Amino acid sequence: MKISGHILTPDGFVHGELAMHAGRIQRIEGTPVGVDDVRGSAERIVLPGFIDIHVHGGGGHDVMEGGDAARHVSTLHARHGTTALLATTMTAPTSDLSVAMGALGGVCRARPKGAARVLGVHLEGPYINPGKLGAQPNYARPAALDELRMLHALAPIRLVTLAPEILGKPECIDALRAEGFQVQIGHTLGTYEDGVAALRRGAGGFTHLFNAMTGLHHREPGMVGAALAHAQYAEIIPDLVHVHPGAIRVALRAIPCLFCVTDSTAATGMPDGDYMLGRHKVSKCMGGVRLPDGTLAGSTLTMDQALRNLVFEIGLPLDDAARRVSTHAANYLGQGERGRLAPGAWADLVVLDRQLDLQSVLVEGEVI
């Protein structure tokens, strides 16, 4: 199979042709073209498929439901250009997590037809600060390696969000990293110093930067200050509701590999109404998702809209925006065969028009 157009390679855009075989990219041939010329042309735009490492739900289904919820969720997001994702859990009792993880194991092992690849699980909590729950149910508890190992045996945990100040000892991060878990800082009341110490111990990034963490003050820089001063990677939710565009621009200048996530919920792709987020009932209204008290509770963002927001609202060049919805997240997870269009990589790609509306999506060579 072949696709032609303006193709974003690791070295920049080329105008040419991409050939695929057996789910992987065989070759890319073309003539280099400047990024400013791409959207002015009538040619199709071919970008790496989007990678979203923070997905709670979509299409009326929540990952914590168990059953075949993850299949529905990954299918909904594939239709919006996400070719790989991490199914993200909520803070919950061990019994609830076991049900969800038991169901996720199968979808992680075998990608359902028409769906995004579920690379594994993002365990958001339960090892977070009960004073900074955000929309998380109040089942926060200290980190327990035995519990993590048990859950990991059910489905592969790729990422754990935790609050470093509740670990007791910073060495706990060493133990988690030694077990192969990527550690991310979030839902935290920690100080700037807590954040710096966690990064030095091997924490890799920050969960939904600015949200559910101590903010920046010029005499108390907080966890946001630690991220802006020291992080290489961090998530951000670019729905323009969770974070002001000005704050997004600050983070873009400070964090080299800032990347986008949706933090999407069951309400994504659905009409206004009530939905479940873990054990919480949430309401979708006017594009937002909230708890009864008004607290933001995830989003209805999709990654194709995230790309458009970065380009049209934040003002990023298309090649930079594309890396922030695919390549940086792939690199963060050590997924060298995804998030880029290059010979040998998985044929995960999106085809867009000049308005950046999706024309087609391919996951491992399958046309969605």
TrEMBL record:
Keywords: Carbohydrate metabolism, Hydrolase, Metal-binding. InterPro entries: Amidohydro-rel, GlcNAc_6-P_deAcase, Metal-dep_hydrolase_composite, Metal_Hydrolase. SUPFAM superfamilies: Composite domain of metallo-dependent hydrolases (SSF51338), Metallo-dependent hydrolases (SSF51556). The keyword Cell inner membrane does not apply. Gene3D superfamilies: Metal-dependent hydrolases (3.20.20.140), Urease, subunit C, domain 1 (2.30.40.10). Its EC number is 3.5.1.25. This is N-acetylglucosamine-6-phosphate deacetylase. NCBIfam families: nagA. Transmembrane segments: none annotated. GO terms for molecular function: N-acetylglucosamine-6-phosphate deacetylase activity. Residues 45-366 form the Amidohydrolase-related domain. Pfam families: Amidohydro_1. It comes from the Bacteria. Belongs to the metallo-dependent hydrolases superfamily. NagA family. It is an enzyme of class 3 (hydrolase).
